[in-house]
Here is the input.
Amino acid sequence: MSPILPIPHTAAGAPRSPVAAERLIAGQPTQATANAYSSADQAFHCGIWEGDVGAWRVHYTEHELCHMLAGRVRMTGDDGRETVVAAGDSFVIPAGFSGIWEVLEPARKLYAVYEPAG
Here is the structure.
């Protein structure tokens, strides 16, 4: 049996990188991802993500469960629907979501991502 793995609630030490220019809408945000676990088949991942204020285009091919640890984010789907989440909120982004991810206050989230093969 595999050991239980704790997930730290910070991305301290993880490298920060800018959002790709072709996706960028506003600001000059950087982000860091500290992946804490990946399944052997690489279909499931979890860890911590941090991002700076700014906005960029997203398209999800994976399903993602998120729990906001800090900050505030607005997601606007291509259909125009807006969702604002803040520290303490939990939510799921289903595969197929396309739109804008906008960090309103420096943000940090715990994530669990599942991307089925194929």
Remarks:
- The CA atoms of residues 48 and 110 lie 5 Å apart.
- The domain at 33-114 is CATH 2.60.120.10 (Jelly Rolls).
